[in-house]
Design a protein that fits this description.
The chain is an alpha+beta fold and 264 residues long. It has 2 domains: 3-116 and 251-261, Diaminopimelate Epimerase, Chain A, domain 1 (Roll); 122-243, Diaminopimelate Epimerase, Chain A, domain 1. The chain has 6 helices and 18 strands. The chain has helices at residues 32-42, 73-84, 130-134, 155-160, 165-168, 210-221, and strands at 3-10, 19-25, 46-53, 56-62, 67-68, 94-98, 101-108, 111-117, 122-123, 140-143, 147-151, 175-181, 189-195, 200-203, 225-230, 236-243, 246-251, 253-261. It has an 18-stranded mixed sheet that branches. Strand 10 (140-143) and strand 11 (147-151) form a beta hairpin. It is globular, with a radius of gyration of 18 Å.
Length: 264
């Protein structure tokens, strides 16, 4: 039986911008090897797989190389598809059971707002070769459960980075976030995200990274609401709001492709 699959550009209201994700709608749990093969075939930074469970949905995310524990843009894309296709009433909140606990999504005006866990910084020493791998010195480094975060001196440095991905591959983490304060309004901070270890050299717009970036910049800018820009080639805007131990990520999405997978 054919399986519905969609491709969505997330954290953008324009086609061919933001971060593309595939969303695969399942009738029941699927074999992990099959899901990994589908993700490899789609060859996007993330493919989401979803089926109904406990008055909500079970949601899993795969890069072309591995399954990951948390992904923002593919969750936003999934919520968008559920509402757009009528699988969930647009007035209802989407509830996702995931490896990172219960995640929620709701409409907030023209935005979809994700309710995600905060992933604040832990102290970390710079790793040997990190500056060489990124091709720039940096002013501060820290980490959380998933990633390293490196702050550099300017937005221009963030935008012009040309990392050595073979060297970044040696860093024992999901990825490396590079960030700085934005040079001008309306943005508060900018970032890029590199994750060759999970099969994604550079992720265009990374919702889960902002679960780290939000609390990081809250301490330094003394505010709890931000407009962030991820300065990849595609680029994308994320509204970030902190409430206690939760981070709310707001963005838009647009469907690019609708199709079906053979079930074999």
């Amino acid at each position: 039986m054919p399986i519905p699959i969609y491709q969505v550009d997330a954290f953008t209201d324009k086609p061919f911008a933001g971060n593309p994700a595939a969303v695969c709608i399942l009738a029941a749990p699927a074999d992990e090897k099959w899901m990994q093969n589908v993700a490899r075939e789609m060859n996007l930074s993330e493919t989401a797989f979803i089926y109904r469970e406990n008055e909500g949905f079970r949601l899993r995310w795969f890069t072309p190389a591995v399954e990951v524990d948390l992904c923002g843009h593919a969750t936003l894309a999934t919520a968008h598809i559920l509402w757009e296709t009528g699988r969930l009433d647009p007035g209802k909140q989407a509830c996702f059971h995931t490896k990172s606990g219960l995640l929620k999504a709701k409409r907030n005006g023209s935005l979809i707002e994700l309710d995600f866990p905060s992933k604040p910084e832990e102290s970390a020493d710079p790793l040997p070769g990190m500056a060489e791998a990124l091709g720039t010195p940096f002013r501060y480094v820290c980490k959380n459960k998933f990633d390293y975060l490196v702050e550099v001196d300017s937005e221009e440095i963030v935008r012009n980075l040309k990392p050595d991905f073979s060297m970044l591959l040696q860093i024992q983490a999901r990825g490396v976030i590079v960030t700085s304060k934005a040079r001008k309004e309306p943005f508060d901070f900018v970032s890029r995200f590199f994750a060759p270890r999970v099969g994604v050299n550079e992720d265009p717009v990374t919702g889960s990274a902002h679960c780290f970036l939000g609390p990081y910049w809250a301490k330094r800018l003394e505010k709890k609401s931000f407009l962030a820009f991820q300065a990849s080639q595609r680029g994308g805007e994320i509204r970030v709001r902190l409430e206690g131990d939760r981070v709310f990520l707001g963005g838009q999405a647009i469907t690019i492709l609708r199709g079906e997978l053979d079930s074999d």
